[in-house]
Specification:
This protein is mainly α and 206 residues long. 53% of the residues lie in helices and 5% in strands. A three-stranded mixed beta sheet has the order 2-1-3. Helix 1 packs antiparallel against helix 5, helix 1 packs parallel to helix 6 and helix 6 crosses helix 7.
Length: 206
Amino acid sequence: MDEWAHVERARTELAEDLEPVDEGEWDKPSLCTEWRVRDVVAHLLDETEVRTGALMLGVARSGFNLDRYLAREGRRGGACSPSVLLERLRASAPSRLHLAFTKPIDTLVGVTVHGQDIRRPLGLRRALPEERVRLVLDRLKTVGFPLRAKRRAAGLTLRATDLRWSHGDGPEVEGPGEAIAMMLAGRPAALADLRGPGLAALSDRV
């Protein structure tokens, strides 16, 4: 599968997992600071709809603070009902729209990480395809702004225990590939799934 095929499948899988979730659960906090489950879904939808010019204008109106702009837009979009958000998520699955300064792999990282931002707090289980996790890990280890994943990985050996993937040199941190990806993306909840002599140093970076 190419990256866009993975993106489409990831969106479809998330919609499938959210289908039976009670409406009240959509108001639960996600792993994203300031966002409920519904706000994260809205953010994923924004990525298929916003244009580069509109994004730059919105960031400028937010004091050139990207995080502030994204947080506000996510909450605004999250005001829609779960049924509307689900319908739009299904419809967005085949979309290949992305911002001019991003690549398809960045879209895949976003939908994969945000999907887990939603599933983990809701207790939803989904075994992610190894190829998808490997693609996400290979991208995250190189990313500076805005995720700062490259800094988190520096000076450590990261080793996935459920697929053939490792990176770096130094004190080892090992665990499921999904947990390593979530840690690189700055999600402290993933630390509980990791172990190794490098974990203490890593905890200070997440």
